[in-house]
Protein backbone atom coordinates (compact mmCIF):
# COMPACT_ATOMS: atom_id res chain seq x y z
CA UNK A 1 0.00 0.00 0.00
CA UNK A 2 1.50 3.35 -0.90
CA UNK A 3 1.40 6.16 1.63
CA UNK A 4 -1.55 8.59 1.68
CA UNK A 5 0.81 11.38 2.63
CA UNK A 6 2.26 11.00 -0.87
CA UNK A 7 0.42 11.44 -4.17
CA UNK A 8 -2.64 9.42 -3.20
CA UNK A 9 -5.44 11.54 -1.71
CA UNK A 10 -7.06 10.65 1.59
CA UNK A 11 -10.85 10.69 2.01
CA UNK A 12 -12.30 10.81 5.53
CA UNK A 13 -15.58 8.89 5.68
CA UNK A 14 -16.98 10.77 8.67
CA UNK A 15 -19.42 13.47 9.67
CA UNK A 16 -17.69 13.91 13.02
CA UNK A 17 -15.95 17.29 13.46
CA UNK A 18 -13.83 15.63 16.18
CA UNK A 19 -12.38 13.14 13.71
CA UNK A 20 -11.49 15.88 11.24
CA UNK A 21 -9.77 17.91 13.96
CA UNK A 22 -7.88 14.85 15.22
CA UNK A 23 -6.63 14.01 11.73
CA UNK A 24 -5.46 17.59 11.27
CA UNK A 25 -3.73 17.45 14.65
CA UNK A 26 -1.25 14.96 13.20
CA UNK A 27 -0.78 17.01 10.05
CA UNK A 28 -3.10 15.12 7.74
CA UNK A 29 -5.52 17.13 5.63
CA UNK A 30 -8.15 15.01 3.90
CA UNK A 31 -8.68 15.78 0.22
CA UNK A 32 -12.39 15.15 0.80
CA UNK A 33 -14.81 14.48 3.64
CA UNK A 34 -17.58 12.12 2.63
CA UNK A 35 -19.68 10.79 5.54
CA UNK A 36 -21.05 7.28 5.31
CA UNK A 37 -24.72 6.84 6.01
CA UNK A 38 -25.03 3.34 7.40
CA UNK A 39 -27.27 1.50 9.83
CA UNK A 40 -25.39 1.40 13.16
CA UNK A 41 -27.75 -0.99 14.95
CA UNK A 42 -25.82 -3.64 16.90
CA UNK A 43 -26.40 -7.21 15.83
CA UNK A 44 -28.10 -9.64 18.21
CA UNK A 45 -25.51 -10.74 20.80
CA UNK A 46 -22.84 -8.70 19.01
CA UNK A 47 -20.09 -7.78 21.48
CA UNK A 48 -18.81 -4.17 21.63
CA UNK A 49 -15.33 -4.79 20.11
CA UNK A 50 -16.83 -6.61 17.14
CA UNK A 51 -19.40 -3.83 16.73
CA UNK A 52 -16.71 -1.11 16.60
CA UNK A 53 -14.67 -3.09 14.05
CA UNK A 54 -17.65 -3.95 11.90
CA UNK A 55 -19.06 -0.40 11.78
CA UNK A 56 -15.68 1.18 10.98
CA UNK A 57 -15.28 -1.19 8.05
CA UNK A 58 -18.89 -0.73 6.90
CA UNK A 59 -18.40 3.05 6.86
CA UNK A 60 -15.18 2.78 4.85
CA UNK A 61 -16.70 0.32 2.37
CA UNK A 62 -19.83 2.45 1.91
CA UNK A 63 -17.69 5.37 0.76
CA UNK A 64 -14.73 3.69 -1.00
CA UNK A 65 -16.66 3.02 -4.22
CA UNK A 66 -17.23 6.75 -4.67
CA UNK A 67 -13.50 7.58 -4.56
CA UNK A 68 -11.47 5.42 -6.89
CA UNK A 69 -7.74 5.96 -6.59
CA UNK A 70 -7.97 7.25 -3.01
CA UNK A 71 -7.35 6.04 0.53
CA UNK A 72 -10.58 5.98 2.52
CA UNK A 73 -10.43 6.20 6.32
CA UNK A 74 -13.35 5.54 8.69
CA UNK A 75 -13.75 4.98 12.42
CA UNK A 76 -16.33 4.01 14.98
CA UNK A 77 -16.39 4.65 18.72
CA UNK A 78 -18.31 2.35 21.07
CA UNK A 79 -18.59 2.88 24.82
CA UNK A 80 -19.00 -0.44 26.61
CA UNK A 81 -20.07 -1.18 30.15
CA UNK A 82 -19.27 -4.84 30.68
CA UNK A 83 -20.58 -6.75 27.66
CA UNK A 84 -23.04 -4.04 26.83
CA UNK A 85 -22.61 -1.30 24.19
CA UNK A 86 -24.08 2.00 25.34
CA UNK A 87 -26.07 4.00 22.79
CA UNK A 88 -25.14 7.29 21.20
CA UNK A 89 -27.13 9.76 23.29
CA UNK A 90 -29.68 11.57 21.15
CA UNK A 91 -32.02 12.59 23.98
CA UNK A 92 -31.63 13.61 27.60
CA UNK A 93 -33.21 10.43 29.04
CA UNK A 94 -30.66 8.27 27.20
CA UNK A 95 -27.80 10.51 28.33
CA UNK A 96 -28.99 10.22 31.94
CA UNK A 97 -29.16 6.43 31.76
CA UNK A 98 -25.62 6.33 30.38
CA UNK A 99 -24.24 8.63 33.10
CA UNK A 100 -25.99 6.61 35.83
CA UNK A 101 -24.36 3.46 34.47
CA UNK A 102 -20.90 5.00 34.15
CA UNK A 103 -20.95 6.74 37.55
CA UNK A 104 -18.32 5.37 39.95
CA UNK A 105 -17.31 2.63 37.54
CA UNK A 106 -14.70 1.64 35.01
CA UNK A 107 -15.73 1.24 31.36
CA UNK A 108 -14.08 0.59 28.02
CA UNK A 109 -14.04 2.74 24.90
CA UNK A 110 -13.57 0.63 21.76
CA UNK A 111 -12.32 2.39 18.67
CA UNK A 112 -12.50 0.65 15.33
CA UNK A 113 -10.47 2.15 12.48
CA UNK A 114 -10.53 1.00 8.87
CA UNK A 115 -8.42 2.14 5.92
CA UNK A 116 -9.16 1.01 2.37
CA UNK A 117 -6.38 1.58 -0.12
CA UNK A 118 -6.68 2.48 -3.81
CA UNK A 119 -5.82 -1.15 -4.59
CA UNK A 120 -8.75 -2.32 -2.44
CA UNK A 121 -6.60 -3.60 0.40
CA UNK A 122 -8.23 -3.25 3.80
CA UNK A 123 -6.32 -2.31 6.98
CA UNK A 124 -7.97 -2.50 10.40
CA UNK A 125 -7.21 -1.53 13.99
CA UNK A 126 -9.18 -2.07 17.16
CA UNK A 127 -8.15 0.10 20.11
CA UNK A 128 -9.32 -0.21 23.71
CA UNK A 129 -9.13 2.58 26.28
CA UNK A 130 -10.18 2.05 29.89
CA UNK A 131 -11.83 5.03 31.59
CA UNK A 132 -12.82 5.33 35.26
CA UNK A 133 -15.47 7.84 36.28
CA UNK A 134 -15.84 9.28 39.76
CA UNK A 135 -19.15 8.65 41.48
CA UNK A 136 -21.39 11.45 40.18
CA UNK A 137 -23.58 13.44 42.54
CA UNK A 138 -27.14 14.27 41.47
CA UNK A 139 -26.01 17.89 40.98
CA UNK A 140 -23.10 16.90 38.74
CA UNK A 141 -25.34 14.75 36.58
CA UNK A 142 -27.98 17.48 36.32
CA UNK A 143 -25.40 20.15 35.41
CA UNK A 144 -23.87 17.90 32.76
CA UNK A 145 -27.24 17.10 31.25
CA UNK A 146 -27.98 20.86 31.15
CA UNK A 147 -24.76 21.47 29.22
CA UNK A 148 -26.02 19.49 26.22
CA UNK A 149 -22.47 18.26 25.56
CA UNK A 150 -23.69 14.65 25.60
CA UNK A 151 -25.63 15.08 22.38
CA UNK A 152 -24.53 12.70 19.62
CA UNK A 153 -21.79 11.21 21.81
CA UNK A 154 -21.31 7.50 22.36
CA UNK A 155 -22.04 6.72 26.02
CA UNK A 156 -23.52 10.19 26.59
CA UNK A 157 -20.34 12.09 27.39
CA UNK A 158 -17.47 13.92 25.70
CA UNK A 159 -14.11 13.62 27.43
CA UNK A 160 -12.79 16.64 25.53
CA UNK A 161 -15.35 18.87 27.28
CA UNK A 162 -16.81 19.23 30.76
CA UNK A 163 -16.91 15.49 31.36
CA UNK A 164 -13.14 15.62 31.78
CA UNK A 165 -13.80 16.49 35.43
CA UNK A 166 -15.47 13.09 35.90
CA UNK A 167 -12.46 11.08 34.71
CA UNK A 168 -10.50 9.70 37.65
CA UNK A 169 -8.25 7.54 35.52
CA UNK A 170 -7.61 6.64 31.90
CA UNK A 171 -5.49 3.83 30.53
CA UNK A 172 -4.61 3.69 26.83
CA UNK A 173 -5.24 6.10 23.97
CA UNK A 174 -6.91 9.42 24.85
CA UNK A 175 -7.57 10.33 21.21
CA UNK A 176 -9.41 7.02 20.85
CA UNK A 177 -11.99 8.24 23.35
CA UNK A 178 -12.47 11.51 21.44
CA UNK A 179 -13.08 9.55 18.23
CA UNK A 180 -9.88 8.57 16.40
CA UNK A 181 -6.87 6.78 17.93
CA UNK A 182 -4.04 8.79 16.43
CA UNK A 183 -1.11 6.48 17.03
CA UNK A 184 -2.88 3.53 15.43
CA UNK A 185 -4.30 5.65 12.61
CA UNK A 186 -0.84 6.95 11.77
CA UNK A 187 0.53 3.42 11.80
CA UNK A 188 -2.22 2.25 9.43
CA UNK A 189 -1.54 5.16 7.12
CA UNK A 190 2.16 4.39 7.16
CA UNK A 191 1.24 0.95 5.92
CA UNK A 192 3.06 -0.74 8.77
CA UNK A 193 1.80 -3.88 10.43
CA UNK A 194 -1.05 -4.03 7.97
C1 LIG B 1 -16.89 8.81 24.43
C2 LIG B 1 -16.83 9.98 23.48
C3 LIG B 1 -17.40 9.94 22.23
N1 LIG B 1 -17.33 11.00 21.39
C4 LIG B 1 -17.95 10.98 20.04
C5 LIG B 1 -17.00 10.50 18.94
C6 LIG B 1 -17.95 10.14 17.83
O1 LIG B 1 -18.21 11.29 17.05
C7 LIG B 1 -19.21 9.75 18.59
C8 LIG B 1 -19.46 8.28 18.43
O2 LIG B 1 -20.21 8.04 17.28
P1 LIG B 1 -19.66 7.35 15.96
O3 LIG B 1 -20.80 6.56 15.38
O4 LIG B 1 -18.37 6.64 16.21
O5 LIG B 1 -19.32 8.58 15.01
P2 LIG B 1 -20.26 9.72 14.39
O6 LIG B 1 -21.63 9.20 14.06
O7 LIG B 1 -20.20 10.93 15.30
O8 LIG B 1 -19.48 10.11 13.07
P3 LIG B 1 -19.21 9.21 11.73
O9 LIG B 1 -19.90 7.88 11.90
O10 LIG B 1 -19.79 10.00 10.59
O11 LIG B 1 -17.71 9.11 11.64
O12 LIG B 1 -19.01 10.07 19.95
C9 LIG B 1 -16.66 12.17 21.77
O13 LIG B 1 -16.60 13.13 21.00
N2 LIG B 1 -16.07 12.21 22.99
C10 LIG B 1 -16.12 11.18 23.88
O14 LIG B 1 -15.54 11.29 24.99
TrEMBL record:
<keyword id="KW-0963">Cytoplasm</keyword>
<protein>
    <recommendedName>
        <fullName>dTTP/UTP pyrophosphatase</fullName>
        <ecNumber>3.6.1.9</ecNumber>
    </recommendedName>
</protein>
<feature type="site" description="Important for substrate specificity">
    <location>
        <position position="77"/>
    </location>
</feature>
<dbReference type="InterPro" id="IPR003697">
    <property type="entry name" value="Maf-like"/>
</dbReference>
<dbReference type="Pfam" id="PF02545">
    <property type="entry name" value="Maf"/>
</dbReference>
<feature type="site" description="Important for substrate specificity">
    <location>
        <position position="160"/>
    </location>
</feature>
<dbReference type="InterPro" id="IPR029001">
    <property type="entry name" value="ITPase-like_fam"/>
</dbReference>
<feature type="active site" description="Proton acceptor">
    <location>
        <position position="76"/>
    </location>
</feature>
<keyword id="KW-0546">Nucleotide metabolism</keyword>
<comment type="similarity">
    <text>Belongs to the Maf family. YhdE subfamily.</text>
</comment>
<feature type="site" description="Important for substrate specificity">
    <location>
        <position position="18"/>
    </location>
</feature>
<keyword id="KW-0378">Hydrolase</keyword>
<comment type="function">
    <text>Nucleoside triphosphate pyrophosphatase that hydrolyzes dTTP and UTP. May have a dual role in cell division arrest and in preventing the incorporation of modified nucleotides into cellular nucleic acids.</text>
</comment>
<dbReference type="GO" id="GO:0016787">
    <property type="term" value="F:hydrolase activity"/>
</dbReference>
Amino acid sequence: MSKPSGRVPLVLASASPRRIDLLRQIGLEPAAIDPADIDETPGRDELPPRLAERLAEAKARAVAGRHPGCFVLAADTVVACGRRALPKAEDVATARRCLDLLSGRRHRVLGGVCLIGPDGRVGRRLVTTTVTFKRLTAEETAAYLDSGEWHGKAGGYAIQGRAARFVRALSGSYSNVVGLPLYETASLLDGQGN
